[in-house]
Amino acid sequence: MASETSMSGLSGAGPVAGDGPRSTAERRREEDYSASQARLVWRAFLRHRLAVVAGVVVILLYLVACFAEFLAPYSTEKFNEEYPYAPPQRLHILDRSGGGWDFGLYVHGYTSSRDPETLEINYTVDESTKIPVRLFDRSAEEYRMWGLIPTNLHLIGPVDDSQPMYLLGSDRSGRDLLSRLIYGTRVSMTIGLIGVAMAFILGVVLGGISGYFGGKTDTLIQRLVEFLMSIPTLPLWLGLAAAVPGDWGPLKRYFVITVILATFAWTDLARVTRGRFLSLRVEDFITAAHLDGNRPPRLIFRHMLPLFTSHLIASLTLSIPAMILAETALSFLGLGLQAPVVSWGVLLQDAQNVQVVATAPWLMLPGVAVVVAVLSLNFVGDGLRDAADPYKQ
Amino acid sequence: MSTMQRAISRKDFLAFGASLVGASFLSSCSALSMDPDTKGNKGQRGGSGTKEKEAPMLAARVRAGELPPLEQRLPKNPRVIQPRDNLGTYGGTWRTVDASTDPSWPWMTVAHDHLISWDPTWSEIIPNVAESFEIIDGGREYAFKLREGMRWSDGEPFTADDLVFWYEKIFSNKELTPVPPSALQINGEPLVVRKDGDYDVTFAFAQPNALFLQNLAIHGPPFRLLPRHYLEQFHKDFNPGLGDDWHVSFLERIDELNNVDLPVLTAWVPKNPHGDGDRQVWERNPYYWKVDPEGRQLPYIDRVVFTFFQDQGPLILQAANGDVDLYQRAEVTTPKNRPVLARGQEKGNYRLIDVKDPNHNTMGICLNLTHEDPVKRRIFQNKDFRIGLSHAINRQQIIDLVHLEQGEPWQTAPRPELPFYDATEMGKQYTEFDLARARRHMEMAGLSEVDSEGRRLGPDGRPIVITVLTQSRYPLMVDALELIKPTWAEIGIELRIDNVAPELVSTRLDANQYDCTCDSGELGYMGMISDPRWFFATGGSSYAPLWSRWYEGGSPQEEPPEAMRRQVAIYREMVVGNPDPEVQYEGMRQVIEIAKEEFWTMGISLPPPTYAIVSNRMKNVPGDNEMWLAFKCPYPAVTNICQYYIEEG
Amino acid sequence: MVGYIVRRVVYMVPTVFLISVVAFLIIALPPGDYLTTLVTQMRAQGVELDQGQLAALQQRYGLGEPLHVQYLKWVSAIVTDLDFGQSFQFNRPVADLLAQRLPITIVMAAATLVFTWIVAFPIGLYSAVRQYSVGDYLFTTIGFLGLAIPNFLIALVLMYLGYRFFGLSVGGLFSPAYAEAGWNLGKVVDLLAHLWVPVVVLGTAGTAGLIRVLRNNLLDELRKPYVVAARARGIPERRLVLKYPLRIAMNPFVSTIGWILPALVSGEVIVAQVLSLPTTGPLLLSALLSQDMYLAGSLILIVSVLTVIGTLVSDIALAWLDPRVRLRGM
Question: Which of A356, B18, C31, C65 has the most beta carbons within 10 angstroms of its beta carbon?
Fold first, then answer.
């Protein structure tokens, strides 16, 4: 994670701009004078097909986070002492057991026995029992959508609520992994966003100041950057986790820590921004704007920043996967969110021993969710970066 | 060539590349070998039968003139150990592992040899280093007779002077011992050690201290046997040239696990410091003072090798691979790890033996009876409130889900095996899951008001919320609490879980800043005699910090209610004050009866038996249910690990 | 150039000083100290440390003194005798612990670096030259997978597979049979059999970043007028790419030298923890968790100093390789 971000920082500071974007820009503008910059970026982005697909996935993930209550068949806490570590069931659409063509969703039940030596419960799928399942089920427990609208509509659920339906298997308490995964999406995809945003703003502002003014200000900020970058994050987390008041809830505690950490995480972006400003401020059009009597804030925000907005968006997109990975890593170390909060990292805590790998591998599925989210966000970020400078093409 | 390779120690990782090249040039024949090159190690196979009186590796050193012959190394009256099954053969390595940096596993195995010891069945204290001992004057004095001719691992004699040196120069030295440990004093009066002869020492207390020997027999005793001849040079009294912080380096010198130069009395001697962190090798002590009935010197096994892991995963796989000869640890040999270990038994040529758990509970729920908030304190101190909560726990459900259907509902009462008290009634009281009864008890406790959302209101008109502080190292407790949460909600009590690092829990307990916490219900068996923490609030208890400080000393403190004061009086009079086991048992019975009546804490279920990993090549090892997983009686050390031997199948 | 280096080195002094203060503060931040940890640990074993034992330990570890006194003691010992103090939980000098673990950490870092380069270089090159081809998508996805899969999951699965199908005790760096043995071919093979797991796990996490940077930089470079001009002159595509653009796009590879060691020491704690590797990462973790202050403080200090030096080295190397960076004067 650390390496990833520092690398992206280097790429920005590398020898990119500087080959007179103005002349090419003029040429392009004649061809596409009707298109805005945003449209040009969008057009270039569409060329990166993987990024487009990834973009759709990201949107889907946030939709899942948004409608978790409706999508999840059960609540995160609903347990069933009869089905701990139940393996995933296959969702059938067509029943031909009777010889005919019987359409309708159903899953098979389980038979289970406990091994006296290993104490494991061995499940076998019982082909003879059929548990009918329906979409837009209303038999399951009630909830309040977004904490407001009381309803009991679930996307999918067993017709008879006392029968087990574990599409992705169950955990050690017989809780439905699918439901927990869906609720986990909400926490994992959002908890760090404020922190990321804060780091972003700090990075752009301080990097901008550093690059624009240069001289003593620059040296000072660069030393600060160097200092902050050289403090390892792990001890910071540990220190902060222990220093935050104990009576705050786990979610609040984690949130506060991400925000505090943001004050350390802005350094990469600051370096990139500074590099950009350094090369931009000697450009003719900036000098001209300066001579026109524009004051620094206007110069920065009106003339310089828009030139690499897309780069900034790209780097913002790329810091979200870093945040997701950080959440899982910290949960692994027992420093991040803790049960009973449900997040991908917390779910993966259950998967962090060889016993699970050997006997209940479906508990590693939250890892797949992490992979999907991180990959898609990375591709989106990449696509945006490729498209960042539409005049270059 | 072999010396060449011995010179390349495993720690020389810096020289890794160089030695690699060097070794391949200098010893091309073995450098290209694919087999483990173990010439540098002395772990020869025994296998030559049960005739020799000493290990071949020592016999070779005697022949080479490096060691005196066996007769001169053994005391006149060595301790004779009856092998569990057979006379053993010499040689081999006991491979073991550990998942922690704390020294408890070495303390429970290789580093445990004191004046006395528990017998292998944990029923009586027997002489060990001491040839015999006598309890005089109702536990006021303890006279030990040492073994004549017994020697330290460097060959120097072990005599009464070593104990006197410890007493005069370490225990009585304010720099080394600012305050004497509580086990070595009684009512603020430290013990006195008296030399009665070269091999006779008496430990004397101002008043009877009947628990002295039990406190000495635990895995981390309050003092260790230390060699005067080696330590004098590091002591200010003998070496005035030492600097002001001599006491710091002196304390490092007496660290038996890390100072490999320190002469010891144990069966094996460490070859490298425990703090190296990844491995520790122990090699036989040529002067060990125990023999088998044939007069053959023990131990049978040449070496003990500990491999340390930071994480359980690789440890479990190593065990499942058959690379561990004997290991048990509460955090590792858990039901959770059982499937992988059980599956590997045949392939790895080992078995899992049942080990008894002295804990009386999977989880003791400790409401803070001395809560800062007077309202909560009043509620929590009400026995009916606690009974109500207890009835509102579905214990069978927790057993089924969290503990894999192992165990039975049980309060924080002694274990059923306890020889001197029938705990069934206490263990089973208030364990039925009965919400109606729970509600009735809430009403009896004066908490009949319920708000519109079904939340029970306290006397201050606010809903009752109990935040349970749990330690992140006990994930099963969080699972259990998750199951208790909805049933407590049924009777209108909201349960919140605050799961934090164990250190933070300790700090909050000491500061008296918590509603309720959970603890593993330890000390449900014989260990309770020297540590009755679950029956009244002693220093180790988690349910009334202010009361436990009243007993233990320290501030702020508060006088406990009459019943607990009575418990303390009985305990001090009959258990601490009288060495007769029958009187002690009677005292404990009375203390437990009061605890049963007062119901200070509640429990969930009896813990299922735990297990140990034992390889099939280890012989003379305990079988099923012969060991306890206990710190107060360190198994497997008390089963005479020196008579274990290895037989390659 | 010399002036630049001297200036940067001088700047390092206050930075390192500040770091040492912060390192110490971070450790002091959580409530309690090592004794709290010890008390907790013993409590779980049914042993209650009494006031007497606590007082003795406090005196032994010098924990009763005010924070700034402890700090000054620690720092002055480092400056005067390179003495990093004593580790409480291991009861050993910190310097000894470091001497054991740093070499292995460095070997691992080097192996990981090489692995990362070997994987990232061809993928980055290919996906830049064949932008938006199926191969580009495929290889970058593979490259990014390493980044996206939580490290401990890969480590666990590889470890289990190693045990299940190859009978390997993957944890640690040697099988028990070889751990005590002298060096020979068998032992080297044994080491390699253990080393590949952490190297792959750690390496895959780093390759994604490198692939991305190489690809982007090369793409930028390939659009430059000089490349267009060269192509117009009919220079074969292979030579065209390899001659100049690649060399410039390689800059980030140089920079990796700077951060790889610090990243390994502190960042990859998780992998080392899962696999129980005798490296410095788990040492730092356990030191922090148990508030073993001198050990933790020294590790943080060393890691931080390594980072500062690493940044300096990579900046100098960049300036030396790429005249434009140098001329811009940074």
Answer: A356
**Spatial distance between the Cα atoms of B483 and B436, rounded to a whole number of angstroms:** 18
Interaxial angle between packed helices B395-402 and B475-490, expressed in degrees from 0 to 180 and rounded to the nearest 10: 150
Phi, psi (deg, nearest 5) at residue C243: -65, -65
Amino acid at position C13, single letter: V
Rounded average pLDDT over B447-460: 91
Instruction: Check if the beta carbon of residue B635 is closer than 8 Å to that of residue B346.
Output: no
CB-based contact B41:C177 (threshold 8 Å): no
For A115, the closest chain B residue by CA position comes to B339
Residue B394: pLDDT band (50, 70, 90) is very high
* Distance in angstroms (rounded) separating the CA atoms of residues B486 and B454: 13
Residue B319 corresponds to which tokens in the numbers above?
């065990």
Chain centroid, CA A156 distance in Å: 25
Q: Please tell me the total number of residues recorded for chain A in this structure.
A: 393
ipTM above 0.90, yes or no: no
| Residue in C29, C31, C33 with CA at minimum distance from that of residue C54 | C33
Closest partner residue to B339 (CB to CB) among A250, A340, A355 is A355
| SS3 category, C213 | helix
Q: How many CB pairs under 8 A join B and C?
A: 227
Q: Which residue bears the tokens 């393996």?
A: A87
Q: Which residue has the tokens 């490729």?
A: A386
Q: What is the pLDDT of residues A215-241, one digit of tens each?
A: 888 888 888 887 777 777 777 777 776
The SS3 of residue A319 is helix
Q: Which residues of A touch C303 (CB under 8 A)?
A: 230, 232
A351 vs C contacts (CB less than 8 Å): 153, 156
Asked if omega into A164 is within 30° of 0 (cis), the reply is no
Q: Which amino acid is at A214?
A: G
The rounded distance, in Å, linking the Cα atoms of A351 and C153 is 8
Q: What angle do CA B266, B270, B276 make, to 5 degrees?
A: 145
Residues with Cβ within 8 Å of C126's Cβ and at least 6 positions away in sequence, in order, are: C135, C136, C139
Cα dihedral value A259, A262, A263, A268, nearest 10: 180
Report whether pLDDT(C312) > 70: yes
Bridge partner residues of B133 (DSSP): B144
Q: Estimate to the nearest angstrom the gap between the alpha carbon of B532 and the chain centroid.
A: 16
